[in-house]
């Protein structure tokens, strides 16, 4: 079963880092005053919301999540300590509690071992291997789908968070406003992904589901927090900086793998981690060719949020890996369970915080934002399906190569569309990062034992 995970210790550590960043709020307030003076004098036509109180927003979000998580944890502990699962019942309430807390008993059968599709397995064994042209077309289809989905997603993500939308006032004037509710963007993305996963489950055969539903809440919480950090970080750092930090998340993933699953790693993983650290450091410490320097407060806030993103995201992947290995569910079932709790957490937190209706009102009154948010969610959900199909068809090595190329193209597109300047040192850092990633893919391919058939 699962290794004991000190989730509360990780949460306390992240909250301590967040509270420690409060000392920079005075500097950020001074920046607010200066921006208001520039706006009033016509020097800055756009509203700057980088200095939005992310610490306050984070605290309200966590408080909203706690009102669900704490009572639910108490009830689950109470039910587990009782003999509830040993009773026999047939009611809807009894079965729902059993499914959420204890899961469905595992039944050994050929249908389960075949992933719920016994007939399909024999068909695959008897079918002739695909030709080179068929395999090439399928690979191009997967690569094009992943690139199109996530390149569009990255460009729209930066557009929504960093740019303004026009708001027409009753007097006929136009006001430029920004959408600052990152949690609502997470909710919209997860809602559409939940719908897509539900449709896939209804129209495709799935293996017997045995995992307790509450197990998905761990990765759901870390996933929505990593997504919130990802959106929030764009208010403080550029998109290329965020992509480079995401590319180097192998380091916190390795650390979290040690904590969650007590994993050990080969030597080349540590070499790659050192190269990634060097490349990201070169990029982040590079001089800005435009001559614009960010304040220390903004840099500190962006760094803390990115650290939170990498910590939460690394926990998500390791916890989901544990779920896959223990309960053998399908990727669509994982997608459904994770997005179900993500929707529950985010909508409840926003309702408690009183900003859900205002976010919906902003979407209704700004058609351009509604269009961007819808396309963002569609590309995110479509990208998840392409991820599952690519890994199933070609394995994780080919998938990693495609996504590494996607990161490079994302940086190039962002620099072209949004005019992010890159110095020679920054370009060298980008090259070092992606050389390290390709070395990691190559080393894993060479270390993979050769098998026949």
From TrEMBL:
The chain crosses the membrane at residues 58-79, 267-287, 293-312, 332-351, 371-391, 398-419, 425-443. Residues 1-26 form the signal peptide. Pfam families: UAA (PF08449). InterPro entries: SCL35B1-4/HUT1 (IPR013657). Keywords: Membrane, Signal, Transmembrane, Transmembrane helix, Transport. It is found in: Membrane. Its main location: membrane. This is Adenosine 3'-phospho 5'-phosphosulfate transporter 1.
């Amino acid at each position: 079963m699962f290794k004991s995970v000190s989730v509360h210790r990780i949460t306390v550590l992240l909250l301590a880092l967040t509270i420690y960043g409060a000392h920079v709020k005075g500097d950020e307030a001074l920046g607010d005053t200066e921006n208001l003076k520039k706006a009033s004098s016509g020097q800055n036509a756009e509203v700057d919301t980088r200095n939005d109180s992310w610490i306050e927003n984070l605290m309200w979000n966590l408080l909203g999540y706690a009102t669900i998580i704490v009572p639910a944890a108490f009830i689950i502990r109470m039910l587990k300590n009782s003999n509830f699962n040993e009773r026999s019942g047939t009611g809807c309430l009894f079965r729902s509690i059993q499914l959420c807390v204890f899961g469905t008993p595992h039944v050994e059968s050929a249908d389960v071992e075949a992933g719920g599709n016994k007939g399909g397995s024999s068909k695959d064994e008897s079918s002739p291997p695909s030709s080179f042209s068929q395999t090439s077309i399928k690979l191009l289809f997967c690569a094009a789908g992943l690139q199109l989905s996530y390149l569009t997603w990255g460009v729209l993500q930066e557009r929504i968070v960093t740019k303004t939308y026009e708001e027409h006032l009753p007097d006929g004037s136009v006001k430029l406003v920004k959408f600052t509710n990152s949690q609502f963007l997470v909710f919209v993305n997860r809602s559409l992904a939940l719908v897509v996963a539900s449709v896939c489950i209804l129209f495709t055969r799935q293996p017997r589901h045995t995992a307790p539903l509450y197990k998905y809440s761990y990765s759901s919480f870390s996933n929505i927090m990593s997504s919130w950090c990802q959106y929030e970080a764009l208010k403080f750092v550029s998109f290329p900086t965020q992509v480079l930090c995401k590319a180097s998340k192998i380091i916190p993933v390795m650390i979290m793998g040690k904590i969650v699953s007590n994993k050990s790693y080969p030597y080349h993983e540590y070499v790659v981690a050192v190269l990634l650290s060097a490349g990201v450091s070169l990029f982040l410490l590079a001089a800005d060719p435009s001559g614009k320097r960010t304040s220390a407060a903004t840099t500190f806030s962006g760094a803390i949020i990115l650290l939170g993103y990498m910590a939460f995201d690394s926990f998500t992947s390791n916890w989901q890996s544990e779920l896959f290995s223990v309960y053998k569910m399908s990727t669509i079932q994982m997608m459904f369970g994770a997005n179900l709790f993500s929707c529950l957490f985010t909508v409840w937190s926003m309702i408690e915080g009183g900003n859900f209706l205002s976010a919906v009102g902003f979407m209704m009154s700004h058609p351009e934002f509604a269009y961007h948010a819808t396309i963002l969610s569609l590309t995110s959900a479509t990208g998840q399906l392409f991820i599952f199909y690519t890994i199933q068809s070609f394995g994780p090595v080919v998938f990693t190569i495609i996504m590494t190329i996607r990161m490079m193209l994302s940086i190039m597109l962002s620099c072209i569309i949004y005019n992010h300047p890159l110095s020679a040192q920054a370009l060298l850092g980008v090259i070092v990062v992606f050389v390290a990633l390709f070395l990691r893919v190559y080393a894993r391919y060479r270390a993979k034992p050769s098998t026949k058939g």
